[in-house]
Design goal:
CATH class of the largest domain in chain B: Mainly Beta
Largest interface: A-B, 52 and 80 residues
Number of helices of chain B: 3
Shape of chain B: globular
Radius of gyration of chain B: 23 Å
Number of domains of chain B: 2
Distance between the termini of chain A: 89 Å
Oligomer: heterodimer
Number of strands of chain A: 6
Helix content of chain A: 25-40%
Largest sheet of chain B: 5 strands, antiparallel
Strand content of chain B: 35-45%
CATH topology of one domain in chain A: 60s Ribosomal Protein L30, Chain: A
Radius of gyration of chain A: 31 Å
CATH topology of the largest domain in chain B: Neuraminidase
CATH architecture of one domain in chain A: 2-Layer Sandwich
Order of helices and strands of chain A: HEEEHEHEHE
Largest sheet of chain A: 4 strands, mixed
Helix content of chain B: under 10%
Strand order of the largest sheet of chain A: 3-6-4-5
CATH class of one domain in chain A: Alpha Beta
CATH architecture of the largest domain in chain B: 6 Propeller
Structural class of chain A: alpha+beta
Shape of chain A: elongated
Number of strands of chain B: 30
Chain lengths: 164, 424
């Protein structure tokens, strides 16, 4: 009984397959999608604190980092000690720390990494008595390299935090 | 047997910034014969050339033109299938162009199967003025879908960022182009960096990161009107936007907690919901095709690795997805949800890699040193990404069937490609 019905199913399936293979051609009709595009132009705001276009970058101090790291080296700490002294001597002085990464790795992760580098500098300054309000941190990720070139020398110069 | 194609497309549009080169095709392509379309010869030639290029670019087709075929076949009503089989042709395309002028063009085409000896598809496409290329892409997509069973992507578009010099000043542009790099249009021109462009699911809006205010900020821009707004108005750095598949939410990386954390922005009421909470970097979020999961890069293990959050089990620990390699980042799901595509560091070099969920290893897909920003075509078959060659950034592509192509720019450098959804 079971076998019989199964056979019948096979018959139906093969009949259907036959019907499908004989079926009419796939017919379609459609229109091309119409789209319009507008173009926008923007320029850097006049009051932006750090501008990386045109002019060479001028910085008061720069500290460098290892690949995918945001820890301060002993040399960096020497640099930051002089920043602390300068800020203690001039209590009106407020600074921006801009974190950067080299071109390796993904752009968004490098943006976050640049932020961590800037934060590492800020943390050191705060630990040494500088007021939180005097230090702003931002990251430019790998978007504004100091030097071009895909080699260790260029990369080590681009993994940096600039203090302006 | 590997078949190599070297095609250089220089059409009448001299403004085109990207020039497509197909460098490698897959092993066993479908062989299709494309006859000249009946109708005005100049339009026919243009359309045939575009279709041929589109199909070869998929890496899955080998195209024979009228010249390669037995000439007496061209105008014959009944096809002599045997002759096609002798040439190893699997499919035959015949078409007709109706055009009173070059403005209003309609194309009808039929696809024949040389083995089954019958017509398998008959289609008609109504063009719109001055979109002959797009019309041809629709034919390519119809052929691709009929033969492979997958939707074609020739009629889709991509975003990318270009960087060039005007005098001594850097100019960054967010560009929109056809999937073959042609027909490019500027969406945003700026003297500050632009990164991370992405599409809304209806392909009408885009989100991206611009540094124009001096700080990374996410903007949402309408393609048709050019109107744009800052996604989240506060004084903090914000980046890495990704629209949810239903278009109602935007995932973002916010830096307001003193560290990169992922949030979800409700685009209707502008409410923000925090998704990650860790002192390490969390960024590069992307949505699963069903919108139920978020994939992201986190430094919580000490190096960048990929994690997944189930939005329905909100408070559970994110699940780590990658264990091989010291750097796995910027991932997105395949549209089939069968795996992820991401950037992997391997022996000091960065490649695009693919990992299927049912496998415990990842497969490198690319072979240069600094590959990044992979973006997957809506049919899941092609990955476009950015590479560096002689210090210059350019776009390259690889299909899951093994074909490869490059889209170098004729001037300046290009990067950050982002593939649209289907535009039809």
């Amino acid at each position: 009984m079971y076998i019989q019905s199964n056979n019948r199913n096979i018959f139906y399936v093969s009949f259907l397959m036959f019907a499908v293979s004989c079926s009419t051609t796939n017919n379609t009709e459609e229109s091309v999608y119409n789209s319009t595009v507008s173009s926008v132009e923007v320029s850097v705001a006049e009051d932006s604190i750090v501008s990386y276009d045109e002019k060479p970058i001028t910085t008061n101090a720069v500290v460098y980092f290892d690949f995918d790291k945001f820890t301060l080296s002993t040399k960096s700490i020497q640099t930051l000690k002089s920043v602390v002294r300068a800020m203690n001597d001039n209590t009106d002085m407020v600074i921006t720390v801009s974190g950067h990464a080299d071109e390796r790795g993904t752009r968004e992760y490098n943006l976050a990494l640049g932020q961590r580098r800037g934060d590492a500098v800020k943390d050191y300054l705060l630990l040494n008595g500088i007021n939180n309000n005097r230090v702003t941190v931002k990251s430019f990720g790998e978007e504004y390299p100091l030097v071009t070139g895909s080699n260790d020398e260029s990369w080590s110069k681009n993994r940096r935090a600039e203090i302006n | 047997m590997k078949i190599y194609f070297y095609l250089f497309f220089v059409f009448l549009n001299l403004n085109a910034e990207l020039v497509l080169e197909i460098t490698e095709s897959s092993d066993n392509p479908y062989r299709i014969a494309i006859h000249n379309f009946d109708g005005q010869a100049s339009i026919s030639n243009e359309i045939s050339a575009i279709i041929k290029a589109d199909l070869q670019r998929t890496g899955e087709f080998s195209v024979l033109s009228s010249d390669d075929l037995l000439t007496e076949e061209v105008y014959q009503e009944e096809l002599n299938y045997k002759n096609y089989r002798l040439l190893g042709v699997d499919y035959i395309l015949k078409g007709k162009i109706n055009s009173k002028d070059r403005v209003n063009i309609t194309v009808s085409y039929d696809i024949y199967d040389s083995v089954k000896e019958k017509k398998i598809r008959s289609s008609k496409i109504y063009g719109i003025p001055n979109k002959t290329r797009q019309l041809a892409h629709y034919v390519s997509d119809g052929i691709y879908e009929e033969i492979t069973g997958l939707k074609g992507v020739s009629s889709t578009k991509m975003l990318y960022v270009s960087e060039g010099l005007v005098g001594s000043a850097k100019v960054y542009k967010l560009m929109l182009a056809d999937a073959d790099g042609m027909n490019e249009q500027t969406l945003l021109k700026s003297n500050s960096a632009i990164i991370s462009p992405s599409w809304s699911p209806d392909s009408k809006e885009i989100a991206y990161v611009s540094f124009e205010t001096g700080l990374a900020k996410v903007f949402i821009q309408n393609i048709a009107t050019g109107s744009r707004e800052v996604a989240v108005k506060n004084k903090y750095q914000i980046s890495s936007p990704a629209f949810s598949p239903d278009g109602k939410f935007l995932s973002l990386t916010l830096y307001q907690d003193g560290n990169a954390e992922i949030y979800i922005l409700n685009l209707e009421n502008k409410n923000l919901t925090r998704l990650t909470n860790h002192y390490s970097i969390d960024t590069e979020s992307s949505w699963s095709p069903d919108g139920k999961k978020i994939l992201f890069t986190s430094g919580r293990s000490g190096s960048p690795q990929l994690y997944e959050i189930d939005l329905l089990k909100f408070n559970t620990k994110p699940k780590r997805l990658t264990f091989d390699g010291s750097y796995n980042a910027k991932a997105s799901y395949l549209p089939s949800n069968e795996g992820i595509v991401f950037v992997q560091r391997n022996e000091g070099e960065f490649k695009i890699a693919l990992k299927y969920f049912n496998e415990n290893f990842s497969r490198p897909l690319t072979e240069s040193r600094l590959d990044e920003s992979p973006s997957i075509s809506p049919n899941g078959n092609v990955i476009i990404y950015a590479i560096k060659e002689d210090k210059v950034g350019l776009l390259a592509g690889v299909t899951l069937s093994g074909a490869k192509f490059r889209l170098p720019s004729s001037s300046g450098e290009v990067r950050e490609p982002s593939w649209s959804g289907y535009l039809r």
